Amino acid sequence: MEIPAEDVAPMARAVELAGRGHGTTSPNPVVGCVVLDSAGQVAGEGFHAYAGGPHAEIVALAQAGERAKGGTAYVTLEPCDHTGRTGPCSRALLDAGVARVVIAVPDPTPKAAGGAARLRAHGVEVTTGVLAERAERVNEEWLTYARLGRPHVTWKFAATLDGRSAAEDGTSQWITSPEARADVHRLRAAADAIVAGIGTVLADDPRLTARPSTPGKGPASVPDVPGILGIPSVPGITDIQGIPSVPGLPGGRAGDHPGHHAGDRPRVRVPLRVVVDPDGRTPLSARVLDGQASTLVAVADDARTGIETDLLPAPGRAAAPPHAPVREAGESSAPGRESGEPSAPAHEVDLVRVPRRGAGLDLEALLRELAARGVVSVFLEGGPTLAGSFVGQGLVDRVVAYVAPALLGSGRAALGDAGVRTIGELPRLTFDEISQIGPDLRLIARPNPQPGREK
């Protein structure tokens, strides 16, 4: 499709705006909108900043005011056409008198789709597919979640130049630099869940939390990420308080978390920690159970283990591990939910049983369980065995590798058995970005599409 030249710059700006919502909108999509007046001048801009906040179209239309009448709206995702707690964005565009709407990507969810059809039915000119590839890239986590029914998976690893993730004696701290490790914490903070295997938990006892890189700061904030992975960085976005608010305007796409309201400010996210533990070997002393974030332990459905007794002593009640903070009676048990005066969230431990697959778990079943819990993006860390299983089951959507200018010559490889038996089966990737982080290289790549596998 040939894109009208006059549509490129406004849609590119809408894509840039959409990227500013990364890490704060889940389980909603990131969306950007630019409204031009009838003379072709920018009248309003907006992006969906956080779950429960106004949609991109609402923010942009509020800024444009009367200038929206007879103008053009550029939206990275098809305007929603359903009525939930708020009216549809398609109706808001009609009420504003917009004459033309340009859409990058159609909404794949049956509940919210149909905005383009409603607009056309009411005489609005609608153009679709403008800069679709760029708009899909900036929204790829949510689109994977919406289309495939599972979270988007980013596999991160650190290795020496010769591909070793640990020495022969098992030591791995620290292969990469402090700068690279700080970058990892920023990327962790942008994910809904951080996943590691039981081998990593037993060997390294990681916390799997997004921690600040500077003393005195709160948990690592998403806007610190130096650019969305594979998308150019957006200058000037350094503080979550810079997110626009529109007093009195309701918001929220399908899937908004209950308890958020239009006037809410985005809360610092605390990613869920997930331990893939087929035989239920997670010790109660593990730091992943320290109460600093909620934790989900995934065990095999046929595992004979007493982990339920240890972690969940009573049905429907999550147990605090020995070194976790104890909640007082009357405190909210919902992670991240505020009740009365602001207080630290109370984090819990939960357990889920998943079918086995080979020596491990059916990871697609685990991902679908996470999706049912509202997890849109997964950050996979730790352990070549688990990484090999994810790669072998075709469940890795993006790879982030930190390569240190160092050599080991022997030791543990970064990737275990991924089911590749011949060069013809080799999963090929395409680089999105190669950049230097301190003395190390950060490589970002994604698997090339495979026939028969929807992306």
Could you say which structural class the secondary elements and strand pairing correspond to? alpha/beta
Overall spatial form: elongated
The radius of gyration computed from the alpha-carbon positions, rounded to a whole number of angstroms, is 23 Å
End-to-end Cα distance, whole Å, is: 21 Å
Structural commentary:
The protein has 455 residues and is α/β, with parallel strands linked by helices. It has a nine-stranded mixed beta sheet with strand order 11-10-9-8-14-6-15-18-17, sandwiched between helices. A five-stranded mixed beta sheet has the order 2-1-3-4-5, with helices on both faces. Strands 7-16 form a two-stranded antiparallel sheet. Helix 3 runs parallel beside helix 4. The two termini are 21 Å apart.
Topology:
Blueprint: H1 5-19, E1 32-36, E2 42-47, H2 56-64, E3 72-77, H3 89-96, E4 100-105, H4 115-121, E5 125-128, H5 132-138, H6 140-148, E6 152-160, E7 164-166, H7 178-189, E8 193-197, H8 198-204, E9 272-276, E10 295-300, H9 307-311, E11 349-354, E12 356-357, E13 360-361, H10 363-372, E14 377-380, H11 384-392, E15 398-404, E16 412-413, E17 429-437, E18 440-447
Parallel strand pairs: 3-4, 4-5, 6-14, 6-15, 8-9, 8-14, 9-10, 10-11
Antiparallel strand pairs: 1-2, 1-3, 7-16, 12-13, 15-18, 17-18
